[in-house]
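2024-03-11 09:14:02 DEBUG pipeline.ingest accepted 1 chain
2024-03-11 09:14:02 DEBUG pipeline.ingest length=202
2024-03-11 09:14:03 DEBUG pipeline.predict start
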Amino acid sequence: MLELYPYFPGKIESNLTTHIIQRNYFTDTDIHRVESYVHANCRFEKGKTGTPELGEVYAEGTNNRDIAYITPTQESKWIYDKLFPLVYSVNENNYKFDIDIVTDLIHYVIYPTNGGHLEWHMDIGSHSVNKRKLAVVVTLSNRDEYTGGEFELLLGGEEAIRPELNRGDVIIFPTYLLHRVKPIINGTRKVIVFWVGGRPFR
């Protein structure tokens, strides 16, 4: 029979419905280096929804994004090396999930001026995305470079929160939190998206 309050050695605390922001984690030099690599070495395609197992589709009603996938190479591995220690530290201090893998290639995402957006969704699901536990978004654009395009998180209740994010800021949150990007009105919003995880939640 399970005890109602089982004993755990040591002190274990976590907050499973919070988000963490690391300000100015990417410098202007870092961002320029990322963008130069992507535009010289990567190919953009329209963002899709779904999973390969269930069928990926592009549906303008659910999203409008241009995505380039950053494969770790000698020239790009530094991006992974810069992000993973931050995520690991944030996880140890806040969530305490079992994480030991990068689950996806880093996505370089552009939300274009013609209504770039992403509707409410979670970053975890069935099949190939069931191991994602923490989502990481690096803001590459200055906030005055676009209007609209607000990033929103739903933590419970009816009111979404809208974290203020500027160039170089990193936001980290559990993949089961609903979030969206509202439509771009003018300009473009550029971000890096990154996920870490491990064995499926159980």
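2024-03-11 09:14:41 DEBUG pipeline.report The first helix runs from residue 28 to 41.
2024-03-11 09:14:41 DEBUG pipeline.predict end
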